[in-house]
Structure formats: structure tokens, C-alpha cells
Amino acid sequence: MSKNLTTRSEDYSKWYNELVVKADLAENSGVRGCMVIKPYGYAIWEKMQAELDRMFKETGHSNAYFPLFVPKSMFEAEEKNAEGFAKECAIVTHYRLKNDPDKPGKLMVDPNAKLEEELIVRPTSEAIIWSTYKNWVQSYRDLPLLINQWANVVRWEMRTRLFLRTAEFLWQEGHTAHATKSEAIEESEKMMQVYADFVENFMAIPVIKGIKTESERFAGAEETYCIEALMQDGKALQAGTSHFLGQNFAKAFDVKYATAEGKQEYVWGTSWGVSTRLMGALVMTHSDDQGLVLPPNLAPIQVVIVPIYKSEEQLQEISVEVNNLTEKLKKLSIAVKYDNRTTQKPGFKFAEWELKGVPVRIAVGPKDLENGTFEVARRDTLSKEIIEKDKIVNYIEELLKQIQKDLYTKAFNYRESHITEVNSFEEFKEVLENKGGFIAAHWDGTSETEEKIKDLTKATIRCIPLKGKKEEGNCILTGAKSTGRVLFAKAY
Fold first, then answer.
1. DSSP element (H, E) containing 44
2. Between the CA of residue 276 and those of 66, 167, 189, what are the distances in Å?
3. pLDDT tens digits, residue range 8-36?
4. Cβ neighbours of residue 98 under 8 Å, at least 6 residues apart?
5. How far apart are the C-alpha atoms of 318 and 90, rounded to whole Å?
6. Quick one: which of 93, 199, 245, 387 has the most CB atoms within 10 Å?
7. Which of 71, 73, 76, 110 lies closest to 92 in space, CA to CA?
8. Is the separation of the CB atoms in 329 and 363 below 8 Å?
9. At what angle do helices 277-286 and 12-22 cross, to 10 degrees?
10. Which conformational region is residue 100 in: left (phi greater than 0), alpha (psi within -120 to 50 degrees), or beta?
11. CA-CA distances (angstroms) from residue 146 to 184, 188, 242, 415?
């Protein structure tokens, strides 16, 4: 199998695009800016979804589903949110087509089927959900309301890229209502922590937890908590966000509750979400010039077994041994595939599974049967070991755990070596241009300075780290006083 992948050093962006398509994760569709997620890519997303869903339910949340369409007046109710998403909105104005009298066989919009009120195709669901919560919340006994939905959203992006930025994408969005401000803040912080645990422990991607600056905050939020990851090209990627909404949406949609004393109060809200953008993070954090590298926790196939034989008789003998091994691995909940296709040679199969990032490959031929051994190859390091038959099951079980751990360590070490402290704007530009990664720098706290640095360098403040140390200093651009460093980077 010929991979013909552009190398990362040659053109990182092209490498990414080619890999997503050639590894059968996704492809562009006939709809501008939209993608088709292929079965192999969707199987990875399903694993992400299942683990996140488990974590949400463990923290007391329930799933529901809300409409795709939002009446325009409802969307406008919370002004900041509406303004923030206005440029990305797709709008439904009519509800029927009819035959075009001037063009036989063609259809046209029926001018008599204009909607009384235009419908927004949801870019996010705060408006429709908070208008529903008004009916669900009457008393303090109805709180907290902890709801999540798995859905698709539409944001009319001008420049799109598979998984990272598409006009339609899949995500989950949590929306909660609380009796007190402190409970809502606690929820926002808790869900940021859930995301961090998932991305680090399940996806093997290290993240930095922080809060966004006012200009980078979610439209309509009082505070946005985030997790930021670093890709191999030195660019940052926002991996998840959790928003403390204050009482903004409660006031916009009149969501009140009666306290134990009978007093009417507005509830406090949060919203939080991650999307199929995490698929892009997965590809860009771990993969190499040979193709995908998948952490075992997320691999649809964790172990692939390839037989090497010359005769039908040899294949049958190998299959008996492989079926025995497969059974033992499946009992340990290890996802294993026996690639006994007779239409492709072993070399083709090796290249195909390498491209698709299967963590462990086992090869077995007549000599292995004679010696009572298996050849085991790791996808992450491309190294091989010969393992005895009676040790193979335990070896594979431990190896998968080791690969998961090693992928995290490798990504963590890369991230740590790409956090650079700078103390002048010249130094800032030099590191940004030649090294990349996160740049820890002093900033004067103003949106004007933040915007000017962005205009001059294309770098944005990714977050104000929650674990950032208090440190007196001077803003790299204006020289004004600063009380701590923030993290800048170019970002996806």
C-alpha cells in the first residue's frame, strides 16, 4: 500500500489534510464546508462520546434533546450571545419549494411560503434551552438542573478544515441552572476538570487549565474556563470550554425560582462543550510521517494480527493459533482484528494498519508456529519484539497500558519544552517565529494591548493559567505594570 504522505516538516497543514483522508477518518462532502465522517473516524468519535457520556452521568447529568431551529426573536433575547454568533448564523426563511415555470425540471423557492418569523439553525443552544428552562424551573426543589445534549450545530465558517473547522460539526453541550452563584461557578470549574481528565487520561494529550480573557470569552458568559493543548507544529488548540453564565440568560428568558422562604430569584447558569474538533487534536498530537498514531483507549482496533504464509495449509495452521489468541484477548476487552484477507499481501496490510494507527501489530508465520512465538510491533515507536506464546496475552495487556502512558509522556515533554518565558516584545516575536509553542509573557490586562499584539503577530492569549504564579513584571508591549504571566500562542 502506497501512503505517499507529505511529511510534517515539508508542509504540516498538507500532511494533516492528507492523513485525515487517507486514514479513512473523514472527507469533504458535496455540501460546502461540511464533512462526511467515515466509519473508522466515527468509531473513534463513538469511543470519545461513550467515555464522556459516562463521565457526565457520573457527575449527575442527564441527556435530553432540543430543536435544531431557534426563532430569531428568541435568539436575540440575550444580546451578547446573539451578537457574538450573528456572522456565523445560517437562517431559514421559507418552508417550501415549487417547480420553476421558466426552467423545466428545476425547483425554486415558493415566494408564498415565507416564514412569519425566520429560524436560526442553531450555532449553539443557549436560547432554545433557556426558553425551555423557564417552564421547568419553578422552585428551589427543581434545582440544580443538570442537562447535556449530544447534537450537531451549524456555524457558517468561511475557511474550513476537516474536524478543526467545519460549517456543521458534532458536539455535546451541557446547560445547567443553579440556585446560587457559588454552585454555578463550582459546576463550571468541575466540568473543565472533567474535560481535562478525559483529554489527558483517555486521549493522552496534556492540557493547561485556565480562564479566557474578556475578548476571548464565550459570548454571553461572565467567565470562560478552558483547556488548551499544544500541537506538534507549535500551534495551540482549544480542546474544551466551560462557561459561567451568571444570570445573563436567566434574566433574558425570565427563569426564576421560589426560594425556601418564598422569594423569587433568578437562577445562575453554566454551559460547556467539546466537539469533533478533538479528532483534529488527536491526529495532530500523536501522529507521524507514517500515518496515524492512536492511543489504545481510543483505537477502534487495538491489536491487528497478520498471518504470513505460502500455502492454504499454513494459513489454516496459523488461523487455529490466532483464533485461540484472539479469544483470550477479547476476554480482556481488547479490540482485536485478524486480518486474514487473501486479496492483499502482508506488506500491504502492514502499511495499511500503520497508516490507520493501530497501536499493536502481531505477525505470525510458520517459523513462529515452530518456535512457539509471535512478532509484536508497536505503532508508536515502530519497534518489534519476539514474544513467547505462553507470555503473549499478559505482554499485550501491559503493552497497551504502556503505549497509552508513553504517548502522554512524549506529548507532555514536547509541551513542556515549548513553554518559553519572554520579557520583551522583540524576544516574543523571535520565539513565536522560530520556536513556536506557548509563550509566557506579561500583559497589562487591557483588550487594546491584546488586540494590538494579535494584529502585529497573529498570536492570541490562549489563557490565563489557573496555576500561574503571581509575579510582578511589565507588559511586553506597553511596559505597564503586570501581576502575572499569560500564555500566548498562534492557534487553530
1. helix 39-58
2. 19, 12, 22
3. 999 999 999 999 999 999 999 999 999 99
4. 107, 108, 110, 113
5. 57
6. 245
7. 71
8. no
9. 110
10. beta
11. 11, 12, 14, 34
